[in-house]
Write a structure and sequence with these properties.
- This protein has 256 residues and is an alpha/beta fold.
- The protein has 12 helices and 10 strands.
- The strands form 2 sheets. A 6-stranded mixed beta sheet has the order 1-2-3-5-7-10, with helices on both faces.
- Helix 1 links the parallel strand 2 and strand 3.
- Helix 1 packs parallel to helix 3, helix 6 packs across helix 7 and helix 10 runs antiparallel to helix 11.
Length: 256
């Protein structure tokens, strides 16, 4: 594994850290490939239940694509395993982004492809495609408008202006905002909740939400009915009894 991507496992949670702090964790080809291959390993590893993606240092999650490297490569086509968003989309495990500092352009595209975003109060977000004269290619033109509405998305993307953490929360761009010293703890607590749940259900539920969101409501509801019937057909006869007992235990723990 390249040293541009640090990997740490804490129980059933894997923390992936983009590690080029001197370059604001800009996404080099080497880093993108490392992220792609590690996420594919994680997807196949039953010992992992959740992922945290963050950036080294306090200045940035990531400033996005390494434009200096890209200019040196000229018109060279990006290899399939250099697209970090595709790797995130393929990973069935929940991915939490812990945004520490700047999250710019490709960084926002990376973030929008993930499942949950927790931001430090010092985080700042921007889509600077219009400022550098490039069109987006990792999905922000479609994901951002679906998440916060087309008018708000246009305000961000057509201006290239920065949005602070509180504004990002108000827009629905991030799930929550925490103090810088609490970022890792908050992300880890939620990751452990994901990892401690029934992993088969977590992965299937995540897929159902993602697939259903692409459809009109009536078709999404039909998809849910089809998926639950297919899922229930795979369950053992005593599964529902175990589920009932588990729910009873949780209920007692919450009231004690």
């Amino acid at each position: 594994m390249s040293n541009t991507l640090l990997v740490e496992q804490d129980g059933r949670v894997v923390v992936l850290t983009l590690n080029r702090p001197e370059k604001l964790n800009a996404l080099s080809a080497e880093m993108r490939k490392s992220l792609h291959h590690k996420l594919m390993e994680i997807d196949a590893d039953h010992r992992v239940g959740a992922v945290i993606l963050t950036g080294a240092g306090e200045r940035a999650f990531t400033a996005g694509m390494d434009l200096t490297e890209a200019s040196e490569r000229g018109g060279e086509l990006m290899a399939p395993d250099e697209n970090p968003v595709v790797a995130i989309e393929k990973c069935r495990k929940p991915i939490i982004v812990a945004v520490n500092g700047l999250c710019i352009t490709g960084g926002m595209e990376l973030m929008l492809a993930c499942d949950v975003v927790i931001a430090s109060r010092t985080a700042r977000f921007a889509d600077t495609h219009v400022r550098v004269g490039l069109m987006p290619g990792w999905g922000i033109s479609q994901r951002l408008s679906r998440q916060i509405g087309p008018q708000r998305a246009k305000e961000i993307s057509l201006s290239g202006n920065f949005v602070d953490a509180q504004r990002a929360f108000d827009l629905g761009l991030v799930n929550r905002v925490v103090e810088p010293g609490e970022l890792r703890t908050a992300a880890m607590e939620l990751a452990r909740d994901f990892a401690g749940a029934d992993q088969q259900v977590v992965m299937e539920y995540k897929r159902l939400i993602d697939d259903g969101f692409k459809l009109p409501l009536s078709e999404g509801l039909q998809l849910e009915r089809e998926r639950v019937l297919a899922f229930n057909a795979t369950l053992s006869p005593d599964h529902f009894e175990r589920a009932k007992k588990s729910a009873a235990v949780r209920g007692r723990n919450q009231t004690s």
